[in-house]
């Protein structure tokens, strides 16, 4: 297939043709093909989602979560292991990826959990999974805060370097509760302290960083970090509007901090959604987490349209950098040889986000009424998967990450 139109190529928008089958074959200005309305961008990689399923299938399933991702222009999602049951051994890992192979609309990766109980045998667990041919993006997210999966700094230090490790950086001693609103008892200092201790220990990837101080600490180290749209666009000032649905970990911060994070987005390596759906009833009880895999790319492109952030900055953090940092071969930016994972966005089609029209089982969004630009077409590995809101593939089309 050959598409022709405006393409983001090597950080610049060029008028050219792009020929592809499963992978991109060539990109040339003189190449003619089917004209496209909008801009051809790389489909996103979301390295931080919680697709629930199994004992939490009332909140989300791999099928519904991946469908929501597809509608948001995401071609690959990396699922976190703190599901129920948690992914703490090879058997649980293999059971979950087998489910993904039958149910996921998009390509799928899965991390392995680190706990106090499995830390001494984590190397053996990784080897067993890799012997089956699966690629494990990371160990983590590793919890340093109050959690049934909390890990001590001492344990983290012992396993540092065994594999790529992602860290949920909140210090347990400074996390006091999870009441509504939880920003009153999960202070910024909890994150900053944990980041400081970790970067002095080794190199890690830090999940959902929420403070400018943490960004500065990580930026002066060999570690990497991600930031979420909710920490860029929401703050404690949104508590009343969210009407009790405000809790997320790490919590929302001050408006000033959110503005500063957005202004310093170039200092952050990755944008990830931390898609964490819960039912409205659970949210009313203070359970932390926001749905966001479907709205991540559209929200960021609305900011591009307004001139708040550059398109190169956004696509690098949603595609190029995730592929490079997590060693996702064949994924990333629009390059010859990469998979033809493409999302076409018409910047004249701005719409308001409505929770009732999104595809997650959550049924609500913290971004109700926000402006967004959703993809008009999405290609996954060269196959047109979405056009005009119509899904053209079946569950199970997505591949799990394999050697």
Structure report:
By secondary structure, the chain is of the alpha/beta class. It has a single domain (43-329), classed as TIM Barrel (Alpha-Beta Barrel), CATH 3.20.20. It has helices at 62-71, 90-103, 122-131, 153-159, 188-201, 212-219, 229-233, 239-242, 255-263, 280-284, 296-305, 311-325; strands at residues 2-9, 12-20, 24-28, 34-42, 44-49, 74-79, 107-110, 139-143, 165-168, 205-206, 224-227, 270-271, 342-345, 351-352, 371-372, 377-380, 383-387, 390-391. A hairpin with a 2-residue loop joins strand 1 (2-9) and strand 2 (12-20). The longest helix has 15 residues, at 311-325. The radius of gyration is 20 Å and the shape is globular.
The amount of beta strand, in percent, is 15-25%
Number of H/I helices: 12
What sort of overall outline do the alpha carbons produce when their principal axes are compared?
A: globular
> How many strands?
18
The CATH topology = TIM Barrel
Strand order within the widest beta sheet: 3-2-1-4-13-16-17-18
CA distance, first residue to last residue: 26 Å
**Structural class by SSE content:** alpha/beta
Give the name of the CATH superfamily. Answer: Metal-dependent hydrolases
Poorly predicted tracts of residues: none
The total number of structural domains is 1
> Largest sheet at a glance?
8 strands, mixed
CATH architecture: Alpha-Beta Barrel
Helix and strand run: EEEEEHEHEHEHEHEHEHHHEHHHEEEEEE
**Rg, alpha carbons:** 20 Å
């Amino acid at each position: 297939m050959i598409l022709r139109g405006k393409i983001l190529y090597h950080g610049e928008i060029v008028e050219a043709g792009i020929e592809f089958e499963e992978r991109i074959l060539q990109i040339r200005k003189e190449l003619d093909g089917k004209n496209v309305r909008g801009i051809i961008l790389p489909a996103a990689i979301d390295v931080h989602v919680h697709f629930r399923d199994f004992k939490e299938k009332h909140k989300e399933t791999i099928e519904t979560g991946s469908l929501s991702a597809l509608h948001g222009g995401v071609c690959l999602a990396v699922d976190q292991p703190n599901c129920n049951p948690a992914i703490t051994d090879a058997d649980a890992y293999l059971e979950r990826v087998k489910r993904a192979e039958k149910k996921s609309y998009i390509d799928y990766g899965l991390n392995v959990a680190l706990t106090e109980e499995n830390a001494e045998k984590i190397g053996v667990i990784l080897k067993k999974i890799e012997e089956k041919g699966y690629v494990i993006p990371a160990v983590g997210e590793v919890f340093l805060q109050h959690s049934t999966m909390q890990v001590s700094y001492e344990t983290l230090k012992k396993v540092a370097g065994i594999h790529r490790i992602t860290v949920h950086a909140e210090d347990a001693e400074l996390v006091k509760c999870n009441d509504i609103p939880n920003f009153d008892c999960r202070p910024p200092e909890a994150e900053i302290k944990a980041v400081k201790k970790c970067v002095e220990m080794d190199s890690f990837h830090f999940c959902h960083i929420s403070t400018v101080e943490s960004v500065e600490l990580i930026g002066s180290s060999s570690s990497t970090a991600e930031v979420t749209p909710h920490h860029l666009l929401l703050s404690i000032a949104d508590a009343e509007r969210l009407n009790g649905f405000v809790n997320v970990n790490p919590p929302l911060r001050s408006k000033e901090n959110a503005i500063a994070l957005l202004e310093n987005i170039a200092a952050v390596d990755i944008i990830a959604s931390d898609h964490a759906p819960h039912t409205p009833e659970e949210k009313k009880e203070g359970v932390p987490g926001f749905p966001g895999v479907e709205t991540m790319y559209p929200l960021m492109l609305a900011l591009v349209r307004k001139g708040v952030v550059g398109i190169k900055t956004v696509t690098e953090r949603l595609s190029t950098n995730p592929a490079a940092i997590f060693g996702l071969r064949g994924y990333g930016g629009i390059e010859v040889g990469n998979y033809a994972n493409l999302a076409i966005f018409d910047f004249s089609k701005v719409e308001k986000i409505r929770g009732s029209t999104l595809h997650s089982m959550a049924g609500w969004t913290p971004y109700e009424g926000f402006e967004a630009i959703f993809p008009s077409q999405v290609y996954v590995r060269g196959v047109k998967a979405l056009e005009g809101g119509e899904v053209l593939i079946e569950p199970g089309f997505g591949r799990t990450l394999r050697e």
